[in-house]
Amino acid sequence: MSKLRGLRLESHKTRPLEQPSCVAPPPRVAVLALDQGSGDESEPLVEAGQAVRVGTTVAYRGESAADLHSPVSGVVRAIELRPTVRGLGRCVVIDSDGRDEHEPALAPLDWQSLDGAALLEHIAAGGVAGLGGAAYPTAGKLALARSAGVELLVLNGAECEPWICCDDALMRERAAEVVLGAQVMLAACGARRCTIAIEVDKPEATAAIESALATAGDARLEVTVLPALFPLGAEGPLVTAVTSREVPHDGLPPQVGVVCQNVGTAAAVARLVQHGLPVVSRIVTVTGSGVGRPANVEARIGTPVAELIEACGGYRGTDRRLVAGGSLTGRIFESDGAPTTKGLNCVLVATPEDLPARGPQMPCIRCGDCATVCPAGLLPQQLHVAAQADDAASLGRFGLDACIECGCCDYVCPSVIPLTARFREARERLNTREIERRRSLESKLRFDKHQRRLAEQAEAERRAFDDARRRARSADPGAD
Predict the structure, then answer these.
(1) What does each C-alpha distance from 263 to 70, 336, 422 come to in angstroms?
(2) pLDDT value at residue 294
(3) Of 263, 293, 252, 65, nearest to 170 (Cα)?
(4) 196 bridge partner residues
(5) What percent of the chain has pLDDT over 90?
(6) Which of the listed CATH numbers 3.10.20.600, 3.30.870.10, 3.20.110.20, 3.30.499.10 matches domain 283-350?
(7) 3-state DSSP call for residue 458?
(8) Cβ atoms within 10 A of the Cβ of 202, count?
(9) Contact 279, 127 (CB under 8 A)
(10) How far apart are CA 163 and CA 326, in angstroms?
(11) pLDDT of 473
């Protein structure tokens, strides 16, 4: 625990947890972003005018995107650009017919009779992705863990960021699903044991999970209670907190024998094996002073944010901002027509009270507070100097690639320097240069290869000419 760094923050989670989760009505028009939050798009399998049911596969997995399924029955209106929480993106737009008819092939799985490879394929086909926010395909992570021979599955129930409490609500209300999902994922990835990591400020969730574990009677599963420290829910800090092992900044948890999954993801796996239901819904925290009744809402994927806010009593006041995620790592977005995605865990309708305006930026005073709280053990003040100078060598030396962009340094900086934004911009510049360097190298290699082909062709033609001359002289010795 001595290695843990971060912030102890006011949680802002009381109001949404005062009542059980509610269920939002199915959307009248479902807007399915092909990028569900992983940064990669799935490939559409449907076209305008095609009829679909709940559970119909409408897009096939990409390199880091999971399968995507219709959350309603109806007809595909279009595949077009729509506003999303990440900006404009391609979306499958489905007009609901209100009948909510399910695909007839959806059925429970006898998962205990399946081997790991078969389970992984079912999880992939069910569109299960990381519901903690990253939306990376679950089957891919479990397959990597299986090939690496990991020993420990860590279910992330830490949920350390202020305002977000959908995982807390899930664990309180559906603890048995979390435990079943853990058992299925153990079988899929081959790990020997699982720990469900929950922060100490979630006693109700901890009690519910412990009760479900007692009912399951599976000695491979346990609970680990962690301090309430941001950003302990991030994968690297979480692995360190649970195991005292450090994930290399350029590596992944399987390199130290661990695979991490979110508790919401585990519940989605449980619903897949119990009911055959792919991921067509998730719980979203809708909160902030700008919404009437903050709550945790189970919403179909593709439900516009405006309908979630309507289900929570509508807007309050006029001076507000929409944030996808929490107050530290969330992303501000403009349109409440943006759809719910697998990666959307929270909609923060923030007023100036919730997110006060930052003061004017001042020069760094070298206080060192940013280094004290950095969970990656970096020196943000040195990184800032290197970023301002656009010094790639120094950025590498001071560990820019190890920054997890958690925002802790911003939060404590007395000079109000937007450190995380500067680091993100520097990383983007370096990535752009690396892409350009690779393209330049590939272009040079193509040019060199073309030149070699031309030289080989010229040499072959010269030899053919010489051979023809020799044959002509042999046939006519008197010829010149």
Answers:
(1) 23, 27, 32
(2) 98
(3) 263
(4) 155, 223
(5) 89
(6) 3.10.20.600
(7) helix
(8) 25
(9) yes
(10) 6
(11) 83
DSSP per-residue codes, 411-433: HH-TT---HHHHHHHHHHHHHHH
One-letter identity of residue 238:
L
Alpha carbon 201 to its chain centroid, in Å, reads 24
Q: How far apart are CA 49 and CA 95, in angstroms?
A: 10
The reply to whether domains 15-282 and 283-350 share a CATH topology is no
Q: How far does CA 281 lie from the centroid of its chain?
A: 16
Angstrom CA distances, 185 to 67, 117, 206, 274, stand at 18, 12, 20, 14
Nearest to 37 by CA among 85, 101, 98: 85
Low-confidence ranges of the chain (pLDDT < 50): 1-2
pLDDT of residue 202: 97
Cα atoms in the Cβ-side hemisphere of radius 13 Å centred on 212? 25
Nearest-10 Cα torsion for 345, 88, 288, 129: 0
Q: In the β-sheet with 295-300, what is the strand arrangement from edge to edge?
A: 22-23, 295-300, 281-287, 346-350, 321-324, 331-333
Number of H helices, E strands in the chain: 13, 17
Q: How far apart are CA 34 and CA 43, in angstroms?
A: 7
Residue 472: C-alpha distances to residues 276, 461, 462 (Å): 79, 16, 15
Q: Would you kindly state where each structural domain of the chain is located, as residue ranges? A: 15-282, 283-350, 363-480
In CATH, the number for domain 15-282 is 3.40.50.11540
Q: What is the DSSP string of 160-177?
A: -STT--HHHHHHHH-HHH
Residue 310's H or E segment, with its range, is: helix 305-311
Neighbour tally for 119: CB within 10 Å: 24
Output phi, psi for 63, to 5 deg: -60, -45
Plot region of 6 (φ>0 → left; ψ -120 to 50 → alpha; else → beta): left
**Is residue 419 within 8 Å of 384, Cβ to Cβ?**
yes
Q: Which neighbouring-strand residues pair with 350?
A: 321
Are the C-beta atoms of 351 and 12 separated by less than 8 Å? no
Q: Which two tokens stand for residue 251?
A: 């590596």
Query: SS3 for 449?
Result: helix
Tell me how many degrees the CA angle 325-326-329 measures, rounded to the nearest 5. 85
Measured over the CA atoms of residue 366, residue 370, residue 373 and residue 378, the dihedral's sign is: negative
- For the purposes of burial, counting CB atoms within 10 Å of the CB of 249, is it exposed (0-12), middle (13-18) or buried (19 or more)? middle
pTM of this prediction? Answer: 0.88
